[in-house]
Amino acid sequence: MKKVLFVIVAIFFAVSAQAADVGVSVTIGQPGFYGHIDVGNFPKPEIIFPRPVVIAPVPVGVAPPPPVYVHVPPGQEKNWKKYCHNYKACDRPVYFVRNQWYDNVYVPEYQTRHGRKGGKHGNDRGQRGGKVKGHGKGKRN
User: Fold this and answer.
1) Containing structural domain, residue 73
2) The pTM is what?
Protein backbone atom coordinates (compact mmCIF):
# COMPACT_ATOMS: atom_id res chain seq x y z
CA MET A 1 0.00 0.00 0.00
CA LYS A 2 2.84 2.39 0.84
CA LYS A 3 4.45 1.72 -2.54
CA VAL A 4 1.24 2.55 -4.39
CA LEU A 5 0.79 5.75 -2.40
CA PHE A 6 4.44 6.69 -3.03
CA VAL A 7 4.02 6.15 -6.78
CA ILE A 8 0.84 8.24 -6.86
CA VAL A 9 2.53 11.09 -4.96
CA ALA A 10 5.62 10.89 -7.20
CA ILE A 11 3.47 11.04 -10.34
CA PHE A 12 1.50 13.97 -8.92
CA PHE A 13 4.66 15.99 -8.25
CA ALA A 14 6.16 15.10 -11.63
CA VAL A 15 3.02 16.20 -13.46
CA SER A 16 2.71 19.35 -11.31
CA ALA A 17 6.30 20.36 -11.97
CA GLN A 18 5.91 19.73 -15.69
CA ALA A 19 2.61 21.63 -15.89
CA ALA A 20 4.07 24.62 -14.07
CA ASP A 21 6.86 24.96 -16.64
CA VAL A 22 4.80 26.42 -19.49
CA GLY A 23 6.14 29.97 -19.33
CA VAL A 24 7.24 30.33 -22.94
CA SER A 25 8.20 33.92 -23.64
CA VAL A 26 7.12 35.36 -26.96
CA THR A 27 7.78 38.98 -27.87
CA ILE A 28 6.32 41.33 -30.42
CA GLY A 29 7.65 40.64 -33.90
CA GLN A 30 7.63 36.88 -33.41
CA PRO A 31 5.07 34.37 -34.62
CA GLY A 32 2.77 33.48 -31.74
CA PHE A 33 2.78 36.94 -30.12
CA TYR A 34 -0.67 38.22 -29.20
CA GLY A 35 -1.28 41.77 -28.08
CA HIS A 36 -1.04 45.40 -29.16
CA ILE A 37 1.12 46.02 -32.20
CA ASP A 38 2.42 49.29 -33.55
CA VAL A 39 1.59 49.44 -37.25
CA GLY A 40 3.17 52.91 -37.61
CA ASN A 41 4.72 52.98 -41.08
CA PHE A 42 4.41 49.24 -41.68
CA PRO A 43 2.48 48.03 -44.73
CA LYS A 44 -1.25 48.63 -44.38
CA PRO A 45 -2.66 45.99 -42.02
CA GLU A 46 -5.30 43.55 -43.14
CA ILE A 47 -8.06 43.81 -40.56
CA ILE A 48 -10.86 41.40 -39.68
CA PHE A 49 -13.70 43.92 -39.21
CA PRO A 50 -14.02 47.15 -41.22
CA ARG A 51 -14.90 49.21 -38.12
CA PRO A 52 -13.10 49.27 -34.78
CA VAL A 53 -14.72 47.36 -31.91
CA VAL A 54 -15.41 49.27 -28.68
CA ILE A 55 -16.68 47.51 -25.54
CA ALA A 56 -16.83 50.45 -23.09
CA PRO A 57 -17.41 53.73 -24.95
CA VAL A 58 -16.00 56.93 -23.46
CA PRO A 59 -18.44 59.37 -21.84
CA VAL A 60 -20.07 62.06 -23.98
CA GLY A 61 -17.87 65.13 -24.25
CA VAL A 62 -14.63 63.18 -23.76
CA ALA A 63 -12.37 62.73 -26.77
CA PRO A 64 -12.08 59.04 -27.64
CA PRO A 65 -8.60 57.53 -27.55
CA PRO A 66 -7.02 56.62 -30.87
CA PRO A 67 -7.68 53.09 -32.10
CA VAL A 68 -5.18 50.33 -31.45
CA TYR A 69 -4.29 47.35 -33.59
CA VAL A 70 -4.34 44.00 -31.82
CA HIS A 71 -3.30 40.51 -32.85
CA VAL A 72 -5.37 37.93 -30.97
CA PRO A 73 -5.75 34.16 -31.14
CA PRO A 74 -8.42 33.02 -33.60
CA GLY A 75 -11.91 33.40 -32.15
CA GLN A 76 -11.20 36.02 -29.49
CA GLU A 77 -12.25 38.87 -31.76
CA LYS A 78 -15.73 37.31 -32.00
CA ASN A 79 -16.18 37.46 -28.21
CA TRP A 80 -14.03 40.53 -27.52
CA LYS A 81 -15.97 41.53 -24.38
CA LYS A 82 -14.68 38.37 -22.71
CA TYR A 83 -11.03 38.99 -23.67
CA CYS A 84 -10.53 42.78 -23.87
CA HIS A 85 -9.39 42.95 -20.21
CA ASN A 86 -6.44 40.67 -21.02
CA TYR A 87 -5.18 43.34 -23.42
CA LYS A 88 -6.25 46.42 -21.42
CA ALA A 89 -8.31 47.51 -24.41
CA CYS A 90 -11.96 47.51 -23.32
CA ASP A 91 -12.12 51.30 -23.41
CA ARG A 92 -10.29 51.66 -26.72
CA PRO A 93 -11.40 51.29 -30.32
CA VAL A 94 -9.72 48.08 -31.51
CA TYR A 95 -8.87 46.85 -34.98
CA PHE A 96 -8.04 43.15 -35.16
CA VAL A 97 -5.28 42.28 -37.60
CA ARG A 98 -5.49 39.08 -39.59
CA ASN A 99 -3.17 36.26 -38.52
CA GLN A 100 -1.87 35.83 -42.07
CA TRP A 101 -0.92 39.51 -42.28
CA TYR A 102 0.79 39.42 -38.90
CA ASP A 103 2.77 36.24 -39.69
CA ASN A 104 3.57 36.93 -43.35
CA VAL A 105 3.97 40.73 -43.46
CA TYR A 106 4.41 42.23 -39.99
CA VAL A 107 6.78 39.66 -38.45
CA PRO A 108 9.30 39.62 -41.34
CA GLU A 109 9.21 43.42 -41.64
CA TYR A 110 9.59 43.88 -37.87
CA GLN A 111 12.52 41.48 -37.75
CA THR A 112 14.20 43.23 -40.70
CA ARG A 113 13.81 46.65 -39.09
CA HIS A 114 14.98 45.52 -35.67
CA GLY A 115 17.80 43.29 -36.91
CA ARG A 116 16.73 40.13 -35.21
CA LYS A 117 15.06 36.89 -36.02
CA GLY A 118 13.21 34.83 -33.41
CA GLY A 119 14.63 36.50 -30.28
CA LYS A 120 14.00 34.83 -26.96
CA HIS A 121 13.11 36.92 -23.95
CA GLY A 122 13.42 40.58 -24.88
CA ASN A 123 10.91 43.25 -23.99
CA ASP A 124 9.84 45.62 -26.75
CA ARG A 125 8.12 48.90 -25.87
CA GLY A 126 6.73 47.50 -22.63
CA GLN A 127 5.43 44.33 -24.27
CA ARG A 128 5.86 40.99 -22.63
CA GLY A 129 4.75 37.58 -23.76
CA GLY A 130 4.02 34.26 -22.15
CA LYS A 131 1.55 31.43 -22.10
CA VAL A 132 -1.76 32.28 -20.46
CA LYS A 133 -4.71 29.93 -20.71
CA GLY A 134 -3.14 28.18 -23.68
CA HIS A 135 -2.40 31.33 -25.68
CA GLY A 136 0.65 33.57 -25.81
CA LYS A 137 -0.40 36.99 -24.59
CA GLY A 138 1.25 40.32 -24.93
CA LYS A 139 0.16 42.85 -22.37
CA ARG A 140 0.74 46.53 -22.03
CA ASN A 141 2.23 47.87 -18.84
Assistant:
1) 2-136
2) 0.65
